[in-house]
Write a structure and sequence with these properties.
It is a single chain. The protein is of the alpha+beta class. The chain has one domain. It is 57% helix and 22% strand. The protein contains 5 helices and 6 strands.
Length: 137
C-alpha cells in the first residue's frame, strides 16, 4: 500500500524507500501519506490503530522464543519470551531490561489470528480499490 501511495506509476521507487523500515516507521509513513493524499483516511487510520494494538503480540510472534505447551489449571498454555533488549528512559537515566515474557492460551492465539485476518481483509479491500484509483486528488 505504501508503494502504491508513494509512486503509483513506478512501484520500485516506493519499495526502495520502505525496504529497511520497521513496522513503526511504515505505520507513521502510511499515516502521513494518507493525510497528504486524502485517500480513505478514516478507514486506514482505524487499521493503523488496530495494527498498533496487536504490535506487542506481533513482536512475540516474530522475535519470541516459544516454550513447549504446558497445562496450568487444566488449561493448555504456551510461554513466550522476547530476548530483545528493551530500553526505557526513567527519571534518573535509562533502564535496560531483557527477556520480556507473556503466557498465551490457545484462545489468545486464536483471537490474535482472527484480528490479524480482519485487518488483512480490510487492507485487501482498500488495496483492490487503490490499484484502480489513479487520481489521488
Amino acid at each position: 500500500m505504501l508503494e502504491r501511495l508513494i509512486n503509483p506509476d513506478y512501484e520500485m521507487i516506493g519499495y526502495l524507500l520502505i525496504e529497511q523500515n520497521s513496522l513503526d516507521k511504515n505505520l507513521k509513513l502510511l499515516s502521513q501519506l494518507i493525510d497528504e493524499r486524502g485517500y480513505e483516511e478514516e478507514k486506514i487510520n482505524e487499521i493503523i490503530s488496530q495494527i498498533q494494538n496487536l504490535k506487542s503480540t506481533r513482536n512475540f510472534f516474530i522475535h519470541g522464543v516459544w516454550s513447549d505447551v504446558m497445562v496450568k489449571d487444566d488449561i493448555p498454555i504456551i510461554h513466550c519470551a522476547n530476548h530483545k533488549w528493551i530500553r526505557k528512559k526513567v527519571s534518573n537515566g535509562t533502564h535496560s531490561t531483557r527477556y520480556k515474557s507473556q503466557t498465551f492460551t490457545l484462545g489468545d492465539l486464536e483471537l490474535t489470528i482472527k484480528k490479524a485476518d480482519e485487518i488483512s481483509n480490510k487492507l485487501k479491500n482498500i488495496w483492490d480499490v487503490l490499484c484502480d484509483f489513479n487520481d489521488f486528488e
